[in-house]
Specification:
The chain is an alpha+beta fold. The protein has 2 domains: 273 residues, Probable tRNA modification gtpase trme, domain 1 (Gyrase A, domain 2, 2-Layer Sandwich); 84 residues, Beta Barrel (Elongation Factor Tu (Ef-tu), domain 3). Helix content is 21%, strand content 32%. The protein has a 6-stranded mixed beta sheet with strand order 10-11-12-9-3-13. A 6-stranded antiparallel beta sheet has the order 15-16-17-14-19-18. A hairpin with a 5-residue loop joins β5 and β6. The radius of gyration is 20 Å and the shape is globular.
Length: 370
């Protein structure tokens, strides 16, 4: 399989990044150390290249009707200048992908999907498009850069981009280092931050401008630890076609009342009977680090670790696990490790609450809640 490269590939090499294959893309795993990169995002500002994510735009008067039909969250009431987190499910309620839908200041519709699902998502959406509704893959025309951390706003302000009034999951047009672009107050780290949609040909200048201003380049390893601490799910690990939104704690994205969408009836039935499994946080005891695919429960199978890593910020191994619904919080369970069995504590999500929670409005339906 051919490996793709983002418009920022040469910038990563220039900064000495360790590159790895991720979902068919050659991406930076880390630049310095995971500890340093994670600390930068938790205390100051980090910058991530997330241009591997799929970016679609929509055209036609029937776009709102199409999005209402294929997405679990209500979309038709999304106002210009706002974004919303949602899921796309199959008729049996299994999750096809999780995505963010944006409505820009002119009322036009966009979305960002997971890199590994870009082609299949595009086909699924086109399958459900009706008269006067089209979806367009814009991924190759742009770069997507995430500026994350409690000082992200002030760093962008130092570059002449004042986003203080932009609400959580707000969308605006902005000029950063001389480049006009769409900016959203979103991210995948649990911290306040912004995602910048820049023309591909301008992305290297944008990246170097952010780094020169003090943003620390960060790779996939730090991003994974940050999102795990914040209880944010990863498609293909914590959720997929074999899981439904209620099982993975994303039932809040499912709006069943007075609307129909693909998967509605299956999810209504699941809600009525209650899911048999649920996603929980896992905290390693002593030196235990839960790892993806490990069995939970030595005497009786209680579930599976869906994601896991070591958190330098929390000082312990952490993970997410899909366990039987009756497993209580604060329980201690045995989990498979490479040399036998270790112990984990069952934790509520999120395991860490960062600055994103402090800037999210209390009545926002757009902000993802773990």
């Amino acid at each position: 399989m051919t490996t793709s490269r983002t418009p920022l590939y040469q910038e990563h090499l220039r900064l000495g990044a360790r590159m790895v294959d991720f979902a068919g893309w050659e991406m930076p795993l880390q630049y310095s150390s995971v500890r340093e990169e994670q600390a930068a995002v938790r205390t100051d500002t980090g910058v991530f290249d997330v241009s591997h994510m799929g970016r679609f735009s929509f055209s036609g008067r029937a776009v709102p009707e199409v999005l209402e039909r294929i997405l679990t969250n209500r979309i038709s009431d999304l106002e210009p200048g706002r974004a919303r987190y949602t899921l796309m499910c199959a008729s049996d309620g299994g999750i096809i992908d999780d995505l963010v839908v944006y409505r820009d200041w002119e009322g036009d519709w966009h979305c960002v999907v997971n890199a590994a699902n870009r082609i299949s998502d595009l086909a699924w959406i086109r399958q459900h498009c009706i008269l006067d509704a089209e979806v367009h893959d814009q991924s190759a025309q742009s770069a997507l850069v995430a500026v994350q951390g409690p000082r992200a706003q002030s760093l962008l302000s130092s570059l002449g981009c004042d986003l203080a009034s932009l609400p959580y999951f707000g969308v605006a047009r902005a000029n950063v280092v001389g480049v006009d672009m769409l900016v959203s107050r979103t991210g995948y780290t649990g911290e306040d931050g912004f995602e910048l949609f820049a023309p591909a040909e301008c992305s290297a200048g944008l990246w170097s401008g952010l780094v020169d201003a003090g943003a620390k380049p960060c790779g996939l390893a730090a991003r994974d630890a940050l999102r795990l601490e914040a209880g944010l799910r990863l498609y293909g690990a914590d959720m997929d076609r074999s899981t439904n939104p209620l099982e993975v704690g994303l039932g809040w994205t499912v709006k069943l009342d007075q609307r129909d969408f693909v998967g509605h009836d299956a999810l209504a039935a699941e809600l009525a009977r209650g899911p048999a499994r649920r996603l929980v946080g896992l905290g390693g005891v002593e030196r235990c680090i839960p790892r993806h695919g490990a069995r939970i429960g030595r005497m009786a199978a209680l579930g599976t670790v869906t994601s896991g890593t070591y958190s330098f910020w929390l000082g312990r191994g952490i993970g997410l696990g899909l366990v039987q619904a009756q497993v209580p919080l604060d329980a201690y369970l045995e989990v498979e490790v490479h040399n036998g069995w270790g112990a984990v504590e069952v934790l509520a999500l999120p395991m860490y609450r960062g600055s994103a929670g402090r800037i999210a409005t209390s009545d926002s339906e757009s902000a993802p809640r773990p």
